[in-house]
Please model this.
Amino acid sequence: MYVGVDYYPEHWPENMLEKDLDGIKELGANMIRIGEFAWHLMEPEEGKFDFSFFDKVIEEAEKRDLSVMFGTPTATFPAWLAAKHPSILSKDEVGHVRAFGGRRQYCFNSPEYNRYASKITEEVVKHFADEPAVVVWQIDNEFGHEGSDWCFCEHCHTGFHAFLKEKYKTVDELNQRWGTIFWGQTYNSFSEIPMPVPTVTTHNPSLKLDYTRFRSASVNQFAHKMTDITRQHAGKHQPITTNVSGGFFDKAFDHTENVRVMDFVSYDNYPVWGGLTEPIPPAGIAMTHDFNRGLKDQNYWIVEELMGAQGHNVIGYLPRPNQAKMWSYQAFAHGCTNMLYFRWRGMTKGAEQFCFGVVDQDNRYGRKFKEVQSLFSEIQPYEHVLNEKITSDIAVLYDYDNIWSWKSQVQSASFDFNAELLRLYAPFYRHNASIDVIPSDRDFEQYKVLLVPVMQIIDEELAAKLKQFAEAGGTIIFSFRAGLKDRDNNIHFEKTLPGPVAELAGIEIYETEALAAHQTVPVKSTDGQESSGRVWRDLVTAKGAEVLWQYSDEFYQDQAALTLNRTGKGNVYYLATGLDATVLEPLALDVIKNHGIWHTETPEGTEAVKRNGHLFLMNHTGSSQTVCGETLAPFGSKVVKCKEEE
Ligand code: GLA
Ligand code: ZN
Model:
């Protein structure tokens, strides 16, 4: 098991190296992660490669039994490369060149960038391939993060045309499937097709979805090329990973495809970043871990675990004492097996002066140092528990085409995909049930419950798999707008909503309404409870399904808001509007109990994860809590062995 820190020795005078490494050892670390932004140091001039600095770092690390994760440095190219080949620079949607000065400003489709990035990757991997201390390679850094997944340059425009030609073969096929007859947009050739850059009103939805798919192909072809080069030259003892950033549902690339060629997934866990005044809610953090575990259906590493407040130009919430440690326990509970904290010491110069580390500018080993030290010593005895595979009875299904379809036309001003996924995820999380978060094209017959949030693109194949799942005894919970569109991002014709799953859900929908952020619609249950719906509402007519909740505002009191269709041996719920936890937590508990799924009740703001005969207990609140019989201090966390009955 590796525990350690992200270390940037190149930021500091060389005479600090040995003392830093001694301090990292004192922390209890056995790994450092280095190199990811140091291209210029390794190639100060074109073709002149010099790895002597990192040779020295690794030599000193080896003396202290510190292993090394080495990052290929293609996220930050040297100024001399941009000066010589400005065409490597990406362009934003209004055609502005992204100037040298930040990071990741390269175009994934630039032939020059691919050539130079391939060369530095080959040279650095070759140089350290036989280095025993270098035990893993990280490719680039957070692909597509900070807006770098998008580019609208000439390379991308011609690449898009080639992408479309490959997909549709003829422009007539494209015209027909895109519906370009609308607004007289019929193309005579692929070369006439624009990128979705600013226009008057809005672009064709099929064009927008296909351009996002092209973005995904662009990011992933580059990632796979760099990975292939690394695999070709790396030592047998050196597996390959890349570090996934937060905001993965907001990115224009399919993360499952991105990491398909990697040996394992790494994740950067920042429950709070920038100007946020509060961390994201515990369920939201937990879901990010379940998503990363789901990418390759295996446990994962964290190579950037937050310890101090973080931000570039604005910072916010300061993690309270032991809160960052508690977030680490939560990560381990959800499948993290090895953890590196970001970062050994905050840097006093450059763009991340306010991205604080384990140690800060005073170079004192203070509270945060002790917090990390205690985590490292407490967690390592549970290595055997952490390496156990996690199996869940519940799975959330997502599909990037569907997410990008919503991005292309949000329909409701208050719609947010991540929030709608959490609307279904959080009620089950609240009962501490284990949940997988997986792509919808993954096999899912082994589950007992499927949560299918706002899946507007449902093709016949998926509809058939879902029907088979329910009839075999599974429970499915759809939320609104299910089955609206086809894979070309167009509305199904002559299919009453919810389209391919109407029969499965036992309902029909004839009218719908978008709700703005300030709007709610009143609903009441058939046993007299009252609540409200947000974001959207489908007006549902039961066609065999049981009505559990219905609208109670004028005109729509005969329309259902939540239905249950018993089909085969299974149950299919349809959530027609954005109902909240007061409705969904009791429903989740019914479903959990109906399937005999392990769960436990804990106080609001606390979490219990059962793994391999142990309970991981986390207190996400600022007050003392009793969780599964254990007293947890504010932001406390611990692992205990399960008592027999648990
Ligand atoms: C990201 C990047 C790091 C650093 C941190 C700062 O995760 O991977 O290089 O920028 O954010 O919080
Ligand atoms: Zn480009």
